[in-house]
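Hi there. Long-time user, first ticket. I'm pasting a complex I've been working with (about 664 residues overall). I'd like to know whether the download I got is complete or cut off, because the file seemed smaller than I expected. Thanks.
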Amino acid sequence: MSAPILSVADLRVGFATEGGLLQAVDGVSFELRPGEVLAIVGESGSGKSVTAQTIMGLTRSQNSRIEGSVKLEGEELIEASDATMRRLRGDRIGMVFQDPMTSFNPVYRIGNQIAEAMRAHRDDVSKQAARARAVELFEAVGIPEAERRVDDYPHEFSGGMRQRAMIAMALALEPEVLIADEPTTALDVTIQAQILHLLEDLNRERGLATILITHDLGVVAEVADRVLVMYGGKVVEEGTLDEIFYDPQHPYTWGLMGSLTRLDRPRPRRLPQISGSPPSLLELPQGCAFRPRCPHEFGKCAEVPALEPRLEDAPSHRDRCWLTPEEKRARRVVEGQIGLEAPAP
Amino acid sequence: MARFIVRRLVGMVIVLFAVSVIVFLVFNVVPNSNPAQRLAGKNGTPQLVKSIEEEWGFDDSLPTQYVTMMKKVFTGELTSYSPTLPVDEQIAERVPATLSLSIGAAIIWLFFGLLLGYLSALKPGGWLDRVLTGVSIAGISIPAFLLAPVLIYFLTYKLEIFPSGGYVPLTEEPWEWFTHLILPWFTIAVLSIGFYSRVLRSNMLDVMNEDYVRTARAKGLSERLVMRRHVLRNSLIPIVTLFGLDFGATIAGTAIITEVLFNVNGVGSYAAEAISKYELPPIMGVTLYGAFFVVFVNALVDIAYAYLDPRVRLGASAR
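Hi, the file is complete. Here it is re-exported in full:
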């Protein structure tokens, strides 16, 4: 296995708010290797986007408290100066955002916005060279009539095309790491698949290390190598794609899986859902954060379980749940569904 | 872009036509008394009233009356009757003073308004922002008729830095032109400086939350470039609209008070004089002149707007 390009260790991000310190990310650790796609999954407010933006240094402000370590090829980023972070952004770490409709500045031509990214990092790139490179990138991400379309304004692009342009922009300087924050959420389902395949191809061709942030397990199944499930700012389960999909250990992960509608099962009377809503990060419950919504909760849950391997044959599969693996396997399938309800007594 | 400009200019002509019809109705048709009597003024003799009646064709149908009036306006035959002076010459004579006053004030208020707004927005809530907020609110709150005497009292009579008023043409003595206008410029500009800096500040704070600003940061642009290219540029779009309205209105009439206070013999003081002497033709002329500038400046602004925001250009042509 190659050395990790990006390693995050015990990352904690808090924001000072009127209601007190909001711990958005609470001890997240992971490693990312070249050519790997790591999916970070969770509901809104689980801390997945904050994690990504902190890696980019975009959460720095007077009100934020950032602790832990983020290393890009051994170089510590948490302590790095703003100028260093600015040089890294776009050059070594590219980012694709959720909503392509609003992520381009409406008053500049798309080609110019891509050229701007290149010229911010390479003084010697002429305007012509930057434009030529933008055309090349447009072709690489599959935008037809690239030569003509680089001179279009964002409003002249469709959503899918804009997201392709966004990816082209993120790739302009051939970064080693690509962070895609919900890159397909704002798109039609057919376009989603196209964009995912594009990301997959780029990943394979260029050995790009990718962090894919999403709440859509369908997207995860399509492209991810490894999966990190986040809840209430913490990682609650971590493993390879197969481990997570075939042997999910944490009841929250079961919930996410169970909430997928499946075409190969009889249609349920009601679409399954995880009851309750995500906790406020200002008043997290004591112990396991998922406890109030978990049908399998028992006395031990008042204590936070560590994120550790709990299966003998799968050391890379780690989770935070007190149930034994046998209990988990017995409980998670209830009437053909993955553990949304407590088992019948 | 060319099509957009042509379309905008055609629109301008239509608006001016509508304005002239309204002026005609308000001055000559709506008031329930003899229009010739009113045009003749307070001291109009019966003979004068009679000749005005014939000259303006008040016995004809309304459309003919309108055409007669517009003919007078365009051929320069619109005159005041006591004494008899052509209105167009009177206005033309005074336009340089009014334009000097308005353009100079506009440059000052744009420059300081945008500068203060930009500085405020860099660190919202910081000490500089708080100081500038105070300054802006003070500027918005002080009326011209209070500010002008205060400035004249301290800077002219006490410190004797500036002349007390009057207007020296730019072509004759540029330096005198400048020193005579500084106080009136600032008197007009102070209100708008406060207003524009508040508007720009809040626009910038809104734009800073836009996704594309985050994108710009994620590209690794320096904070200065993010602010100037992405935040400021997009925040200026509403400012341009505001400027079009304000600048047009300043030329057309806001300057009246300042012109009178500083004894600048511009179009505003001409109108003020005409009102005090109850002379209708000059007021009619000044109204049309004002409408022309408001509409003209707004057409220019729309064109600037299309330049700043490419989405505007498409508008009708895309449909």
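A couple of notes from our side: Chain B has a mean pLDDT of 85. The CA atoms of residues 109 and 189 of chain B lie 5 Å apart.
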